[in-house]
Amino acid sequence: MIEIKNLSIDFGRGADRVQAVRAMNLSIAKGETVAIVGESGSGKSVTGLSLTRLLPEPPAVYSTGEILVDGNDVLKMGTTDLRKLRGGKIAYVFQEPSTSLNPVFTIHTQISEAIRLHRTDVSSIDAEVESCLDMVGIVNPRGRMHDYPHQLSGGMQQRVMIAMALACRPQLLVADEPTTALDVTIQAQILEQLRMLKAQTGMAMMLITHNFGIIGGIADRVAVMFRGSVVEEGRTEDVLRNPQHAYTQALISCIPQLGQRRRRLTAIDHALL
Amino acid sequence: MALLDQLWFQNTLVLIGYALVASLLSSATKGERWQAASSRLKRDYVGIAAFVVIVLFVFIGSMEMIRLPSNEGRRTLLDLVTTGIPQEKEYAAPMATHAFSVANPRPLNGRHLLGTDTLGRDTLVQTLRATRTALIIGGLTSIIYIPIGVLLGIMAGYYKRWVDDLIQYLYSTIASVPEILMLVAILMVLGKGLGTMSIALGITGWVGLARLIRGETLRQTEKPYITAAKAMGQSDWKIITRHLLPNVMHLVVIKFVLGFSGLVLTEAVLSYLGVGAPIGTASWGGMIDASRSELSRDPVVWWNLTSAATALFLLVLSLNIFGDSLRRAFDPRQT
Amino acid sequence: MFAYIIRRVLFSVPIVFGVMLLTFFLFFVIQSPDAMARRVLGPKATPQTVNTWLHNRGYDKPIIVPRAAKQSFADYLLISRSWKDSLFIHQMTRLATFDLGSSDVTGRPLIDIFKSGALPSLLITLPAFLLGLMVSIGFALYFVFIRNSALDLLGTFLCIALMSVPLMVYIIFGQWFAALVLKYFPAFGFHMQGMSTLKFLLLPVALIVVSGLGADVRLFRALFLEEMGQDYIRTARAKGVSSARVLLQHVLKNGLINLITMMVASLPFLIMGSLVIENFFGIPGLGNVLFSAIQAPDFAVVQASVFLGSILYLFGLILTDLCYAWADPRIRLH
Ligand SMILES: Nc1ncnc2c1ncn2[C@@H]1O[C@H](COP(=O)(O)OP(=O)(O)O)[C@@H](O)[C@H]1O
Ligand SMILES: [Mg+2]
């Protein structure tokens, strides 16, 4: 359903110009989960945000390429179509749940805002908000839905973010480092939740992470990004078992593994790449 | 205090201040942050234009500051340059050939580009002369409040604990009195004068700077390089002068420029309130004050107000624009 | 919450004391009461009248310790009885009991003067404050909406230009324009008579609003722009919320909460009026009281104003905290 063709994104113009994404190609089929892995600053988030043209322009400039969603180029869409796309067809979960929720509105207000925007079929907003919260595993959703974000723990906040994203039944969920800001035990819970929800709804997912360790068992395919381009792409097992690119090998060797003797973490030597 | 009211002392102090600023800038600009900022500033043409205007004002003001050896009273470089301009006896409109009087339009001694004031002095010369007052107020006050603000701000942020409490108490007390009230109270007791005005403005002015510097110092002391310096056993004095000072200097410069514009404006208000520049000192505030009676005349005498207000506006505007350019150059994330 | 207010009030006590100390030092130590009397009474005053003037106000008391008594060590420790009769203690207890004293010039009790001046001042400053706030917020939101466009750039420049004009020039221009060109508003004067008061208020209020516009719009624009960069704004946009709604819903509410911290503190101070405006328009408010006190000179009025101003400011700070707690769900006072 998604096809990124030859996409390049710059920040700034002239002397200050930084190329964040360079001639990138990637596609995601219906119901498929694609992981995007790369070190921080490699352009993963920029890629994810560009899918619905969420980058602030300026400074962002889409210099080449196209992003096709069901055959329509996002970069040529008008604002009304873009707004329907955002949240409606493609929804997001971000890295920092604590800052990604608006602190001065209740979670009910924030989730119902999404529902009102995209779903005309819903008759009882309250019931719908409740069922969304229930779906992501929040206990006592009716009691919690009038809480403010600061009254929830980090893991709960991220569940609320997921509930808000799924409230409008998107076809693609972009999860941008959804567990990076959380404790390790909570990380596993949230990943498990995502896997379950994906199975339930049959949506596609773009899972952005810097950690190869979390994608096994959840991603069908993986694309490795380095300095703004995809350097390796393939089925998750293949890439994990038999990485081709030196950068991928280096990233994989960073995964701490149980039962293995502690080694020094390998620093990635950029000069060799 | 008496010394501060001496013209020569004011002039010397402010001229030394220029030299200080210039040498400070030339040494500070070696740092990485300054290099980046100056390269950004070089592309900011509006900022450069504003800077040029400021330099022009400084040049004019300095002409009035530099006094020539002379027996016939006060003679400055500006007097020398403008000797050819004749003195009149009353108001004269811009470029008029006859005095501005319905009853008795006497022929004038010469033409005046911007007219003359009630004593027949050339308005343009008076306006230029008043530049000195603005520069003295801005300069003297800065010389007073910047060292106090930087020192106390850094001390509060670096030593924390009771030093911080004491300094915070000090500036909370001063800040709790509305600024204009504080200025008026101090000036009523100390009397009119550029020196006393600078002292009053200095007493209220350091608070904002100290707050700013304290905040930034607190931020800096959290950073590892300060911890490292402490761990290496460097003395407090060294840490403050080598590490903290260079890292807050850009804030001082921005505050200096933007604060200067505020000082020039405040000088005008204080002079208007009657606690500012002493009588006989050319000041834009004084000229604006005098224009109240001029505007109620018929026909209206408008040129004194217009000249003073325009000059004041130009200087303050340039300072504001340049200060803003500086801020953007040092912190490009802000728009 | 009640406990919180009590605590905040108690914390303000040292600051009020500091201000009292400061004004005492300024008015009675830096300048001797003698010099003060001479300046109030003018050069023609005889030593006789100066002494009576000083005596009537209690200014003839020793400043801290009577000169004659400065002999034993106990006196230096400030424990002798005569010390209690010093000007310092007298002034401090007077202010601490909110006894503002009376005018140096007319002898009228200051509390009366302040009471009668408060209403005219508030009639000008309160509408100006509210109107200014609304207009500035409106412009700021608009500039954030069209941020980085040529119009936004022009707006920023205009704001800086507006900031660079002294208040007096605004007033002079405003009076000339409104009264002489439009021939509609009175350029001067103030009569409180029902609806016609409005006519006198219009121009001063408009001038205060315009003169503050540049600085406020810029400040608020920066504030809103900072909100614009927050993560939750990205979340809202990712939901498909329109830019206008993002601005009016998400940015505005967060921005207003931040705005409260800056604006509410100055609310109580509105009662003190505007010095320059009131003088220009002949409005009999507290600003004008202070203006006349400067010209007179009337030190008692200025001293009391400084004291009151600081109390009002501290009151404003407490008010700020209360408003903040009320507006921001994250904050609880205890
Ligand atoms: N708003 C922005 N302004 C300027 N540069 C940006 C901005 N957002 C991202 N970039 C640049 O784009 C590059 C890629 O960033 P990003 O996609 O966030 O990396 P990551 O892979 O860690 O998610 C970074 O090097 C950064 O410098
Ligand atoms: Mg990222």
Kindly describe this structure.
The complex is a heterotrimer of chains A (273), B (335) and C (334). The model of chain A has no long low-confidence stretch (mean pLDDT 85). By secondary structure, chain A is of the alpha/beta class. Chain A contains ten helices and ten strands. Chain B has twelve helices and no strands. Chain B is mainly α. Chain B has one domain (38-66, 129-334): MetI-like (MetI-like fold), CATH 1.10.3720.10. Chain C has a domain at 110-327: MetI-like (MetI-like fold, Orthogonal Bundle), CATH 1.10.3720. Chain C has helices at residues 2-30, 33-41, 47-57, 73-76, 81-84, 87-96, 110-145, 150-163, 167-181, 197-228, 231-238, 243-263, 275-281, 286-295, 299-327. In chain C, α1 (2-30) runs antiparallel to α15 (299-327), α2 crosses α3 and α12 runs antiparallel to α15. The N and C termini of chain C lie close together (6 Å). Classes of the chains: A alpha/beta (273), B mainly alpha (335), C mainly alpha (334). Chain B binds chain C through residues 169, 172-178, 180-182, 184-186, 188-190, 261, 265, 268-269, 272-275, 285, 288-289, 291-292, 295, 305, 309, 312-313, 316-317, 320-321, 324, 334-335, and chain C through 14-16, 18-19, 22-23, 26-27, 30-31, 147-148, 160-161, 163-169, 172, 176, 222, 225, 269, 272, 275-276, 290-291, 294-295, 297, 299, 302-303, 305-306, 309-310, 313-314. Bound molecules: adenosine-5'-diphosphate and magnesium ion.
